[in-house]
Amino acid sequence: MRKNSRSAQNERTQECVFGSIVMTEGRYRLIGSTASPYAIKLRALMRYRRIPHDWVIMTKALREATAHLKPMLIPVLQYPDGSYRGETTTLAYDLEARHQARSVVPEDRAVAFVCDLLEDLADEWAVKPLFLYRWWDPEDQAYVSRWAGEEWSTSDAKAGSREEIEEFRQRQISRMVILGATDENRPLLEESYRRTLAAFEPHVGMANYLFGTRPSLADFAWFGQLSEMATDPSPMRIMRDRAPFTDHWVRRLDDASGVEGNWYPREQALGGFAEALLRIAGELYLPFLAANADAFAKGLERLEINVWGLPYALAPFKYQVKCLQQLRAKFAALDAGDRAALKPLLERTGCWAILEGG
């Protein structure tokens, strides 16, 4: 039986115009760059979750269309209704509310908290050695500025032109001191990368993720950072030498749409892999967040810490005060049973006292 024209129109794929781009009804549009760890984090997550979307490289026209979002960061997710939103953790949780299948948040609340903490560690600390490696050595500068400069469209110069590439390179180099990529901090940043690889290498595999045989939000956050380091010249050589199976794991997680798996029971989920990264959080990241919050509260121009016998110093950041507040709020929201289950692990790894507010 032939369908009437109205029925056929309702069932076929429709296209709606928003600004200067065309969207397919019912699909998201993820706007980013392959050089952004946060953009590929969200792309891999959406691929795994089989959420219909189109991947689009950021252009000057799209920069203008999303200029109302503050701060202007990559990626931007355009929803099927045409609205634009940013910040990958917020987006990931919003997608959890909108799409039930193939969740990336562990069902166990204690494990879910650890997932949030390890995602934050990736998003807020692992990006620091990535930024250092990208803009310290001339080889990495040249490689990344050609790649990211072409895709990020941050200047008025023609995309991919020498002018745009050089403008992007100079822009990023000018931010090195602000973001702590200095000669003083370099030994700690490089050591944190080596320790991260050492934490991953014994545990990754064809079906091994942080909390099960399925990937979590934290896995995708680490994928984003490590995938870029597996591509940029200097950290790529280090990874291939020290952690070849981590290199393979990262490559596979780019598209895990065919992965089917389960969450581990609590005891197993909070075992070796998670504990190895929690130790980095307890020894490095949480002390940094606490020192940052203290320096910001006192109005200091500089925070200073010493981790693993190595110094680290930079101006305090308000955003990372918020990071610590959010982690403490999530920790406080756990019930007594979940906190009790986590206490031995968090004390053993040095996380407990700072999360409690100490």
From TrEMBL:
| Keyword Glycoprotein (UniProt) | no
Q: Keyword Signal, does the record have it? A: no
Record InterPro entries: Glutathione-S-Trfase_C_sf, Glutathione_S-Trfase_N, Thioredoxin-like_sf
**Annotated ranges, domain GST N-terminal:** 30-101
Single GO molecular-function term?
transferase activity
Report the Pfam families cross-referenced here. Answer: GST_N_3
Q: What keywords were assigned to this record?
A: Transferase
| Name of the protein this chain belongs to | Glutathione S-transferase
Protein's organism: Bradyrhizobium uaiense
